[in-house]
Design goal:
The chain is built from 22 helices and 11 strands. The protein is an alpha+beta fold and 588 residues long.
Length: 588
């Protein structure tokens, strides 16, 4: 082992490893607080973006049942089987073998892939930056940095649209720490992003074909697990090769060959998803649900101080390129101050710009392609911070320490406020969607267990939404669904289909939700209900709006409250104080 390698390992052990452990611990605290607030209820170990996590749990549940194929369990529409997501298929198989619950595997994999992703990011930082201080700042900002969303005027007000606020307040995949906090899929795919980028850089610097092959294998796995991420990587590497060729005034055909090899190996993974998108209408409709990017202003504010710090090395790099290094009037070069080359800065700048550009490609799912933007932004910001504190080298150590602490606090405040908001929401039995609860009652879970034990694998169930009359700002009364928790959780708990349960996974979610909201109303006729059931194609209904203090249920669902006779096509087959299960018999 060389002295440089020994120093690198020592730096990882003494600095990066404790930071990784701290990030993992901090990301788990809200879940532990949520559990401690259970008070006799069953904590589901989910909070922000609960509905998307329920989709992942449904994929794991199918793998636990031995299915290599994957179906969308949030619809009863006819659909062909898809190739299972490799991450959640593997987690489901492990859960089946170990008899662990999917939610246990969810958080275990979140932490494991979080640690792997942060370690790979550290290796990437070390590949790009030679200076120890700059590496440390880059890693700290990558692990904990966010933007200006914490400011009172920018933090989303209750009931206001989150899309008119900085992305660090509501889009987890835009920020590394929030991704670590919420999703094993984000951690898995961000690890692959960092790993592919690292191998591409090594293939370029070392003229290494093996590294290009590794990059292609990682790309193929991304294609199967989180396809959108390929776009940003491809644009980044293409832009970097073009810029390198222009600035060096020569084209390295070896780079083009290695990039082509990586692309060819990546292609099958992307092709599988493209084929399924073309042949599976349910999947196609899911991809067509609009998840559009926020205005560039909200993205920039979502990175805030990181964005400003990231400009510093880019400006210094441009100065060195146009004015020449060590120009007396301009100051020392970037290499001399923060220990990194112009090539590294050029690459990181290409990555920032191309990842941002990917998020504005005119497709329905454009917002998802912002994932990965935080990595190069934080690394550049680390270089900028190191340069600022290098310029302050003649000031007192105490003053520098105050400034460094202030910078770190300002860059982490949104993440702190994000976690505190989730803790507060959980204490009120809410998540940010307003449609699901982080706690279920014992009776709700018992009803789902009954479904799992007493219905065939291909059965379709519809938990009915909780419905209330609400007063609009205009003084009118409006019928509205206030809770869809059971419909969201049921696929992941039972492995059964629901007719309507997820805003994006359920085709025509709004229309279907409006239909089932009307189902139990006393003004709905039996003829209308039978038509609804024929369209729903479900064999069982669950009614759980049974809280004695809920005055809406007797008025809006009298037949499920025993106030009027139950129609002949519904038979109550299971009941407890919290939930009832009804078998549906629709005349043919």
């Amino acid at each position: 082992m060389t002295s440089a390698e020994a120093d690198s390992r020592s730096e990882f052990r003494k600095f990066a490893l404790p930071i990784i452990c701290l990030a993992l611990i901090l990301s788990s605290i809200p879940y532990l607080i949520g559990f401690l607030q259970s008070h006799g209820r069953h904590y589901m170990w989910l909070g922000y973006n609960l509905d998307d996590a329920c989709v992942y749990l449904s994929w794991m549940r199918q793998a636990m049942h031995g299915s290599l194929a994957q179906h969308n369990l949030f619809t009863t529409d006819s659909q062909p089987a898809m190739l299972a997501n490799p991450l959640f298929y593997t987690l489901g198989v492990i859960a089946g073998i170990t008899h662990l619950q999917p939610i246990t595997m969810f958080h275990f994999s979140r932490l494991v892939f979080g640690a792997i992703m942060l370690y790979t990011s550290w290796r990437l930082i070390c590949e790009l930056i030679a200076d120890t201080a700059a590496r440390k700042w880059a890693f700290l900002l990558l692990c904990f940095g966010a933007g200006l969303g914490w400011l009172p005027g920018l933090w989303p007000a209750t009931g206001a649209s989150i899309f008119s606020t900085p992305v660090d307040t509501w889009q987890p995949e835009a920020i590394t720490f929030l991704s670590l906090y919420l999703s094993p899929l984000f951690m898995f795919s961000m690890w692959l992003q960092a790993a592919v980028i690292l191998q591409l850089i090594r293939s370029h610097r070392q003229k290494c074909m093996k590294c290009a092959v590794y990059a292609g294998l990682g790309g193929a796995l991304i294609g199967l697990a989180h396809t959108y991420d390929i776009v940003g990587i491809a644009l980044t590497w293409a832009a970097y090769l073009v810029v390198s060729a222009v600035t060096n005034r020569r084209t390295d055909f070896g780079d083009i060959v290695r990039a082509a090899v990586a692309g060819i190996i990546t292609l099958p993974g992307v092709a599988v998803i493209a084929w399924e998108l073309h042949t599976n209408k349910v999947f196609h409709d899911r991809a067509a649900v609009a998840t559009l990017s926020a205005s560039p202003m909200w993205v920039i504010l979502g990175y805030g101080v990181l964005f400003l710090l990231a400009l510093i090395p880019v400006i210094l790099c441009a100065r060195d390129y146009y004015c020449g290094a060590n120009t007396a009037s301009e100051g020392p070069s970037l290499q001399a101050t923060v220990g990194t080359s112009k090539q590294s800065i050029v690459f990181l700048a290409c990555w920032v710009m191309m990842q941002m550009a990917a998020a504005y490609i005119p497709v329905a799912f454009q917002r998802k392609m912002l994932q990965g933007e935080h990595m190069p932004m934080a690394i550049l910001a680390g270089l900028g911070a190191a340069w600022l504190f290098w310029r302050m080298r003649k000031s007192t150590p105490q003053f520098r320490a105050v400034c460094q602490t202030a910078l770190l606090v300002v860059c982490t405040l949104t993440n702190v406020r994000f976690l505190l908001r989730d803790v507060k929401d959980a204490s009120a039995d809410l998540v940010q969607t307003g449609q699901q609860r982080p706690y279920l009652t014992s009776g709700e879970l018992a009803a789902m267990r009954w479904i799992k034990q007493n219905t065939p694998q291909n059965a379709a169930i519809q938990p009915l939404p909780w419905v209330r009359l609400i007063t609009t700002p205009y003084g009118d009364q409006k019928l509205a669904p206030t809770d869809m928790s059971d419909a969201c959780f049921l696929p992941g708990i039972t492995g059964r289909h629901v007719y309507c349960g997820h805003w994006g996974e359920t085709p025509n979610y709004g229309g279907k939700l409006a239909r089932i909201v009307r189902f139990a109303l006393p003004t709905t006729t039996d003829e209308q209900r039978l038509k609804m059931l024929q369209r729903m194609r479900v064999q069982y209904l669950i009614f759980s709006q049974k809280d004695p203090g809920d005055t809406s249920a007797p008025q809006l669902a009298p037949m499920f409250c025993g106030l009027i006779p139950l129609p002949s096509y519904l038979q109550r087959v299971y009941s407890n104080p919290d939930a009832d299960v009804y078998k549906v018999t629709v005349p043919k």
